[in-house]
Amino acid sequence: MLSLGLRLLIALLLIAGLAGLEVKRAADELSVVFLVDASDSMPLAARQLALDYVRSALQRMGPKDKAGVILFGADALVERTLSDKKELESFTSKVTSIQTDLAGAIRLGLALLPADTARRLVILSDGIETSGDAYEAAKLAAASGTQITVVPFRVQAGTEALIVDVNAPSRLRQGEQFSLEVVIDSTTDQQVGVRVLGGAAVAYEGALRLRSGRHGYSLPLVAGPPGFAAYRVQIAPLTDTFYQNNELAAFSQIEGPPKVLLVKNVNPRDGVDESKELIAALQASNILVDVAPASGLPSELPVLANYVSVILVDVPARDLSARQMSAIQTYVRDLGGGLVVVGGPSSFGVGGYFKTPLEETLPVDMEIKDQKRFPKVTFVVVMDKSGSMSATEGGVMKIQLAGEGAARVAELMHDFDEITVVAFDTAPVDVIGPLPGTERDQAASQARTIGPGGGGIYVYEAMQFAADIIRKSTNPTRHIILLSDGQDSEHQEGARDLVRTLADEGITLSVVSIGEGQDVPFLKDIAALGNGRFHLTQEAASIPNILTSEAAEVQRNYIIEEPFFPLQRAPSPILQGITAVPPLQGYIGTTAKEAARMILVSDLADGSHDPILAAWQYGLGRSVAWTSDATGRWAKNWVSWNQFARFWAQTVRYTINQGAQANAVVHVTREGELATVTVDAKSDAGAYLNGLTMLVNVVGPDGQTQSVSLQQVAPGRYEGTFAPATEGAYLIRVAGSDPNQSGGDTPPVAQTAGWVLSYSPEYQTLAADPNFLARVAQLTGGTVVGEDLGVIFTHDLQAPARATRPIWPELFTLALLLLPLDIAVRRLVVTRYDLQRAGARLRAWVVLHAPHPAPVPPQRAEQLSALFKAKDRAGVSSTNAPRTQGHEEVGASGRSPMPPPIVTGDRSKGDQLIAPTEAPPPPVVAVPPRPSAPSPTVPSSTSAALLAKKRAREKKE
After folding, report:
1. How much of the chain, in percent, has pLDDT values that exceed 90?
2. Which of its termini does the chain have fewer beta carbons within 10 Å around, N or C?
3. CB–CB of 786/773 below 8 Å?
């Protein structure tokens, strides 16, 4: 029964623990979290006062109290977790100080406070809230039973002048005189210098006499060339507190004839100017053209938005930065701009457009899907893995960019191709492959994981290793790509002879040199000896584009040079009024995307119908791909064609959003964390445009786009909100369509506007707001605390009714302790004999530790003395008897009699009985030989012996 009971008890303990049994207990502790404002509106002196205040308050903590500290600005950080320590060294957390988010700090404080204690938040701030909603956070605190107490800091602002607002007309005409309205707030009368920048030029410069308070001032300006103009107003006070509020800008759109930007290749492959005839054709059609090299393509969207369309003429991707290509993509997709790409031997696939933002923007893919048109190719990519490849560019190591280039070469392969990637320094370190084209994904993923090594690259050894691999291939086209450092290419001896031998075997070699250096001439030589190409780049970011263009060049069929007459596949405004076109001599092979409109296609003898002229709608804008060129190389019959200028003028105008001149006015106002976009849409006749589906794309300074749907709130007026996150210029593209009208390429409203997010509101408010803090505290039943620090740790809050605490650890511990007892009950057998022995030992222990008996009364002591004397006499007489050797007198128990204890001290006074340290020897008694007759019984005790002697004397008498 005992074993069963123990088992049941253990089982119940385990079940209760697993069920999460909890116990309730009353909470009498107090937890306090200090929320300290560390934003820029709190000067250093105020932050030091806040630190001293918290230190002093901690000294008044009770024995069961705990306190934590949170610093907050635009974000909130835990400076100190809840602790019972009363010391605080200093504030070490670094928060973003350009904003004040009190609501976020309150929410973090609530998360830090435990649920089983009384809770209090203490806010030390100037009360200037620039983001978040502290009232909503305070309501959340009140609902959780947390009190908010505030300690307001009345910060005195120093001398300050700040630009509050700048207003410029939303639309201007070139050369128009206008006034730029500026609102400036100053704490005192003072004179400041003022400057207005229109783009990169100084549009106005002078001085202003400021009056104390907020006042408006007018600055006379003249509108510049057409496009978007950002007018930045700057002031320079003699004494100031915050420099952040001394500059503000406004946007204006200066109207004028639309302009296009033509970007040309300044280093064409055969020295032919690809853009000459095209520029002349556009100018003959009264289209204003700005010409720039690839390096002159703007990467800033406000500058790019000054053009209605961009034309790229035979521009390779390696000449464009990633930021430039991303800007083009955003310009077309989100701002409704136009893009025309004109082919040539350095564009499209052979120009390295594969997997770039340009490929995503264009209506064609850079790959030709028909594998039957390609020869079987074997690639061996040898990349420099030396220590110089660990250098970073734009946050990315050079070796990673090289690995990305090798990965793109693998992704361009067809199923019957083959690739090997070798990372080399003084020896081959990483070797990937040979792998067939069917495993291109595996080759690409492994290439992207290659890391840097050390030393320099041994060119001869690297080339010999690549030669040994590629000679095993039976593919008709075999090509080696060597990527090396122009400054650190070692072991050049024998490399030229090896490359000559490979060229005789039909194996070609191209070289990519990263940076100029002493080894560039050698690298050029071996590229020429290998019947390949030499590429020199100063930017490692262009390596992927170079390698993909090299792979496309090797595959050869990307450049198709064969005379044909283009066939019209679909109608288009581009061919309006054109009934026939001349023949072409060549083009770059591409594949049309599914959503693209194939306008003209090739008509070759092998039945190929590759796109020659393709267009599509990409986001809000349009892009066009012309895969042939505009020169005498492939389009010599087109250059002399009488419709050449008309064709190109209609192509460019197709990409221009004609609704850009619609009568729509865009306004942006900011309130709190949100900005409201208001669009007033009217027709050319001045009638309100109602019932439109209005979409707005907001492109921020960081290039991120927010899409906002506007709702109609009044006749012709539409509104929507977005959340600006970064200070700077925002471009806003408005596109309105009529859902009741189907067809047509031109939306009824298409307008681009600009707006500038000014500096943070942290620098706009100069006066503290203690009343705001008092209202926040009032929502939770809290108060404003002054210098009475004892109030902070006063236990006057209603603690939680009963706090719960899980007890599964105790239950599991008890079950664990009972388990050995249960095992012992089941395994150990206890008999009655074991119980008797245990009882005897227990009684012995009790007797040993029992208190000593009381002293013997005097009469009893006298009787005992008499008995002891009689015993002594008997002992004396017995000593005279002869003793038999080997025997000694024993008692009835078989043991030698022990002497009586010796009494020392006075027991009536509590003295103890002490046994003698050495017992006297027992008396020796001679035992006579046993007679035949029975001998008298030996007395069993001293009393019996005395009695026997007494009886013997009585008989004698």
Report:
1. 21
2. C
3. no
SS (H, E, C) 493-550: CCHHHHHHHHHHCCEEEEEEEECCCCCHHHHHHHHHHCCCCEEEECCHHHHHHHHHHH
Instruction: Name 484's bridge partners.
Output: 513
Per-position DSSP letters for 89-147, written without gaps between them: --------TT---HHHHHHHHHHHS-TTSEEEEEEEE-----SS-HHHHHHHHHHTTEE
Name 815's Cβ contacts closer than 8 Å, sequence gap at least 6: 10, 13, 14, 17
Say which residue, 881 or 671, is predicted with more confidence: 671
**Is the separation of the CB atoms in 750 and 734 below 8 Å?**
yes
CATH class of 375-554: alpha beta
Name the residue among 858, 848, 852 with its Cα closest to residue 913: 852
Task: Specify the 3-state DSSP secondary structure of 49.
Answer: helix
What's the number of CA atoms in the CB half-sphere (13 Å) around residue 619?
A: 22
For residue 555, the tally of other CB atoms under 10 A from its CB is 25
Evaluate whether 286 touches 260 at the Cβ level (below 8 Å). Answer: no
Q: What would the two tokens of residue 62 be?
A: 């009770």
Q: Name 862's Cβ contacts closer than 8 Å, sequence gap at least 6.
A: none
Distances (CA, A) of 252 to 221, 222, 453, 755, 875: 12, 12, 53, 9, 140
Strands (DSSP E) along 359-403, which ranges?
364-365, 377-384, 392-393, 396-397
CA–CA dist 591, 366 (Å, integer): 7
Cis? peptide before 434, omega within 30° of 0: yes
Cβ pair 419, 554 in contact under 8 A = no
Q: In 3D, which of 640, 551, 557, 560 has the Cα closest to residue 601?
A: 560
The residue with greater pLDDT, 483 or 388, is 483
CA distance 400 to 391: 10
* Beta-bridge partners for 123: 35, 150
* C-beta of residue 343 within 8 angstroms of C-beta of residue 373: no
Ordered by start, the domain boundaries in the chain are 23-155+768-803, 161-255, 259-366+559-655, 375-554, 659-763
Distance (Å, whole) CA 331 – CA 703: 10
CATH of domain 259-366+559-655: 3.40.50.880
Cβ 631 vs Cβ 639: under 8 Å: yes
**The overall pTM is greater than 0.85:** no
Element (H, E) at 229: strand 227-236
Topology of domain 161-255 in CATH is Immunoglobulin-like (2.60.40)
Whether the Cβ atoms of residue 311 and residue 279 lie closer than 8 Å to each other: no
In the three-class reduction of DSSP (H, G, I as helix; E, B as strand; rest coil), residue 394 is classed as coil
d(CA 522, CA 535): 13
Judge contact between 653 and 745, C-beta under 8 A: no
For the stretch 448-504, pLDDT in tens is 888 887 766 788 888 888 888 888 888 888 888 888 877 777 788 888 888 888 888
Backbone angles phi, psi at 812, to 5 degrees: -65, -35
Q: Are strands 621-626 and 611-618 parallel, antiparallel or unpaired?
A: antiparallel
CATH 3.40.50.410 fits 23-155+768-803, yes or no: yes
pLDDT of residue 624: 95
Q: Do domains 23-155+768-803 and 161-255 have the same CATH topology?
A: no
Helix (H, G, I), strand (E, B) or coil at 350: helix
Q: How far is CA 792 from CA 30, 180, 268, 613, 789, in A?
A: 10, 53, 77, 77, 6
- Does the domain spanning 659-763 belong to CATH 3.20.20.450? no
Token pair listed for 422: 């070798």
The tokens describing 764, both together, are 């706009």
Q: What are phi and psi of 519, to 5 degrees?
A: -95, 0
Q: List the beta bridge partners of residue 752.
A: 733
Which whole-number Å values give the CA distances from 415 to 552, 733, 822, in the listed order?
Answer: 15, 44, 71
In the block, which residue shows the tokens 């770039």? 356
Contact 218, 184 (CB under 8 A): no
Cα–Cα–Cα angle for 360, 363, 366, rounded to 5 degrees: 65
537 DSSP β-pair partners? 514
